[in-house]
Q: What sequence folds into this?
């Protein structure tokens, strides 16, 4: 039943956020997703800490899954289309798919290893990672709207020295 609820929340989030994905920039949607995810992780932690009703904790974790669909779910693939030229897209898609699955595996392994000793405090770690990612993207990600691939690469080279 838990898996069905999780899939349903993700599906509902996908349906809800789809109209916004084309209306607002990828940067805004991605940042909104990470910020929302961090808020709901921290809210889940607080509800656990304060001994609130378990349904409230489940609500916050469900809201995390729902908000994931605003940005981190679909946006990485949209960003690849906006950022890379046609010749580079396949390589970028392969590389970012590898990174995505590596991150998923790392989270699963780390969670199993630290969830026992840390209990639900582990949600602070993952909430902090989401918040850090929000700030990182807000500072360093360039809005691709109306820009060519070459213009984007030039802006990234100016903004982030490692690309020089």
A:
């Amino acid at each position: 039943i838990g898996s069905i609820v999780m899939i349903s929340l993700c599906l509902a989030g996908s349906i809800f956020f789809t109209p916004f994905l084309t209306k607002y920039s990828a940067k805004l949607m991605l940042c909104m997703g990470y910020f929302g995810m961090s808020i709901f992780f921290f809210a889940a932690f607080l509800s656990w800490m304060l001994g609130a009703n378990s349904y409230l904790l489940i609500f916050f974790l469900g809201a995390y899954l729902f908000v994931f669909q605003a940005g981190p779910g679909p946006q990485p693939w949209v960003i690849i289309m906006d950022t890379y030229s046609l010749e580079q897209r396949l390589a970028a898609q392969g590389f970012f798919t590898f990174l995505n699955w590596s991150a998923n595996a790392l989270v699963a392994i780390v969670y199993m290893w630290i969830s026992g000793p840390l209990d639900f405090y582990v949600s602070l770690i993952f909430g902090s990672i989401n918040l850090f990612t929000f700030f990182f993207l807000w500072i360093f990600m360039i809005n691709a709207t109306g820009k060519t691939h070459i213009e984007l690469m030039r802006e990234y080279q100016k903004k982030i020295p490692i690309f020089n």
Q: What stands out?
A: Residues 1-159 form a domain with the Growth Hormone; Chain: A; fold (CATH 1.20.1250.20). The chain has a mean pLDDT of 87.
